[in-house]
Fold this sequence. Notes:
There is one protein chain. Helix content is 56%, strand content 0%. By secondary structure, the protein is mainly alpha-helical. The protein has one domain. The protein is elongated, with a radius of gyration of 15 Å. The two termini are 18 Å apart.
Amino acid sequence: MYDYREAVKEDILQYINDEISFEDFDTLEELEEKLNEELWTADSVTGNASGSYTFSTYEAEENISHISVSQSHNKGG
């Protein structure tokens, strides 16, 4: 079953591994600010820049169809 939160977590970790050098930041707050700015528009994480995370209607529909009702209504952690 598709787990949206797990997919986002994996996408973020992949982005950090590929794009971030920890030596460029003096504090965790600087890193957090940079990640918030960058990840918001990273297609590989949010799809916000192009409006599409998968670039495929079929894949998007598949992802949605595998989200359980309890996951979509879960507002907690």
